Amino acid sequence: MKKIALAALACLSLGLAACNEAAASSDTSETPSQSISILTRDTEISIGQTITLTYRADGEVGFSSSDDSIATVDDYGQVKGIGEGSAVITVYLVDDPDVKTEITISVYKPFFLYENGYYNGNFDLTDEREGTVYATGNQVQLLVNEPGQEWYFSCHIQRTGYVNNDPLGRFGVGSFLVDTLHPIGNNMFWFGFRPTGDGSSGLYTPYYGGWRYEPGMTSAEYGIDANGFDPSLGFDVTIMRSGLDHYFYFEQGEVKFGYSVAFFDGEETYPGIYSQNQELTITEFEASSDHQAVVDKLNEFQTAESVSINGLDNRLEPGIYDLTATVLPEVTPIKDVVYSLYEPHDGVTCSGDGRLVISDGASGTFRVVATSINNPNAKQTKKFQIIDSLEPSGRYEEVLAIGDGARLEGDNVVFDGNTAYMPVNALPDEDVGYTVDLTAASGKGRYGVMLAAKGYFQYDYAEIVVGEDESRILRYGNHDHSFEAEYALPGSAAFDKAIELGLYKLGGTVYVTLDGRLFKSFASCTEKAFPVVYSDGVKVSDSGHGLSTGEQASQALDLYGDFFVGGYVGLNGGAYSLAAVDIPGGNMNWPPDNDYLNGLKYKQALKGELDIRFTVSDLSPMLSGDSYDSKVLVYLQSESPTCSLQLVIKGGKDNPTYALCPNFDDATWVEYPLEEYGIDFSKAVEVRIVKKVEGLEVYLNGTRVLGDCDGLLNDDYDWSNDTLSTPGIGTFRCGATLSGVEIAAYTGE
């Protein structure tokens, strides 16, 4: 077989006969027949590769393949590899099919993809079949031909130099989302190596990051290990994917790391190599998307060392429960456990997958054993007591409380600072909401609300975490995933007052409300749940609460409006007060990068033409030196940090200037002055933005502005009715008041 280099790929994929004739001059043979000869260049091609047969014939010819599942051939003699194996391609005379000749084509599966749209940058695959490939510079993404939601990829990477005067570039292995909607290089998550410190040591440190692997993110990178490693020794690395979870193993440093990429939920990705201006030699590569092979690799990566059955209470009423367990270390990929009763118990059964059934009339105590499926020595035995059921009351019940740090005062609960949970005695429901007014007196720890399944084996929660330095943060999530967010400006009075904290579970989604704001949402881990208020280390009291279920829960959530409201945003009647603030840390001033901490985001993605209206007032731009550098931004696709229509405020303190900057392709920063329209931005300005298929119409105080602006009628952006967009409004280093905010379908008026 002739080796395939990148220089030859375009020729082969286009299938030009002239190209094949030229190549055949150095490697050809003739297969004679009565009046047909095939000139063969290569008899081995890869899946997806196309070559054009060249031949000599005394008349019109036809083509056929013995197996179209391996190789197809069209009327022009173009042979395309479809699947692994061998197929016989026959060339025959149309007028006399008995006059024919044949060529056997062997089709193999390439390890790396080099089809158009599935690679970036410069690399050399000449020696791929011999086990070596080279990344030779620029921004390289080289995909392994094993797409799926579970796979592994291992290789040895040797850094041999750099290009483009970039000695500080990064490299590593990644997970790449590539399809017709996601061009290569747009959505990728990776583990890799970056220069340690300022790079002067010549050492490299493991890190993780990528591009647009989370909603609202452009790029990010975070350290995994502080140690530096010598690149001259090479790097033996493995990346594994199992569902959302991605795992990384770096052999030299015994570094193990895991990260869950929720953005890839339900999406197939490709493993692969990435490199930023580095010259790499990649050897010893292997990969598989076979389920058992992936399981074996995951178990090789890390097996369970301990198992702990979840649940806050060991008292269980008769009923059906789905047990869960926590497996450690956290980076253990396969966390499945097998459950069983320690010994038989009348009226109690437990299946291997954790379905626990306690029949009416059962009594006493019983024990359940949970054992890791990949380490029989990692197990736990937990004892449970059967208690009588209580008639649901919809109120707190002290008899059901967990811990001794809570008491009831009338209808409200008071926590004394010890760990305690006070449940609401209500039937679990698929749709349930609970809000509670909580006032913290003192202490360090956490307090909040959870929506728990029976037995507390699964629960969703939202809690305020009070740090040793009196800092406060909102934490929310469940066993599977947890998140943190600021809920007020640091040092503001909001930390010193009672907060109204709420959780609403509607089907599979949980919404967090806080002080009248719809704040966050996440995927629920429960089917049916009931409310619980709790505290751990904080003296806190409940001064009011409300329970809603079924349709009432949905109606109660609707009262919070259609927007997620950021933690730095204050409510003033029906208006929103955005702070004048400079958020530290990289690009954090862009609203999508800080998840609209200082703005509003619509609570769902929308399609079609939109009519966006609001009034902006009380503009408070921030100076950068002697001039303003501030923006008010309307986002039309929150997945991009800059895809927005921007009101740009510049100029000096006494003479601010205002312009519109349409930036819909993340690269256009042309500003169009608004001076000619005579708009007084020191007063309230009514804004209307109509998002249409052909572009935007913008109205300020009822006057259309920049009607013939090419930037607003951007042909490079997809404004089609099928395009999903998540509108949002935020500011960049600018205070503002937003009122009358509405987003509706455009009706043509």
What does this protein look like?
The chain has 749 residues and is mainly beta. It has five domains: 6-108, Immunoglobulin-like (Sandwich), CATH 2.60.40.1080; 119-295, Exo-inulinase, domain 1 (Jelly Rolls, Sandwich), CATH 2.60.120; 306-386, Sandwich (Immunoglobulin-like); 398-561, Jelly Rolls; 572-745, Jelly Rolls. Helix content is 5%, strand content 50%. The strands form eleven sheets. Strands 11, 12, 13, 14, 15, 16, 17, 18, 19, 20, 21 and 22 form a twelve-stranded antiparallel sheet that branches. Strands 32, 33, 34, 35, 36, 37, 38, 39, 40, 41 and 42 form an eleven-stranded antiparallel sheet that branches. A seven-stranded antiparallel sheet has the order 43-46-57-50-51-52-53, with no helix packed on it. A hairpin with a 4-residue loop joins strand 28 (348-350) and strand 29. It is globular. The model is unreliable at 1-33 (pLDDT under 50).
Topology readout:
Blueprint: H1 6-14, H2 17-24, E1 30-32, E2 36-39, E3 44-46, E4 50-52, E5 54-57, E6 61-65, E7 71-73, E8 78-81, E9 85-93, E10 100-108, E11 119-124, E12 132-143, E13 150-162, E14 171-179, E15 182-195, E16 204-211, E17 219-223, E18 235-242, E19 245-250, E20 255-260, E21 270-276, E22 278-288, H3 291-301, E23 306-309, E24 315-316, E25 319-322, E26 325-328, E27 337-341, E28 348-350, E29 355-358, E30 365-372, E31 379-386, E32 406-409, E33 412-416, E34 420-423, E35 431-452, E36 459-466, E37 472-477, E38 482-485, E39 499-506, E40 509-514, E41 517-523, E42 530-549, H4 551-558, E43 563-565, E44 570-572, E45 575-578, E46 599-602, E47 610-621, E48 623-624, E49 627-628, E50 630-635, E51 644-652, E52 655-663, E53 672-673, E54 685-692, E55 695-700, E56 703-705, E57 728-732, E58 734-745
Parallel strand pairs: 3-10, 24-31
Antiparallel strand pairs: 1-2, 2-5, 4-8, 6-9, 7-8, 9-10, 11-12, 12-21, 12-22, 13-18, 13-22, 14-15, 14-21, 15-16, 16-17, 18-19, 19-20, 23-26, 25-29, 27-30, 28-29, 30-31, 32-33, 33-42, 34-42, 35-36, 35-39, 35-42, 36-37, 37-38, 39-40, 40-41, 43-46, 44-45, 45-58, 46-57, 47-54, 47-58, 48-49, 50-51, ...
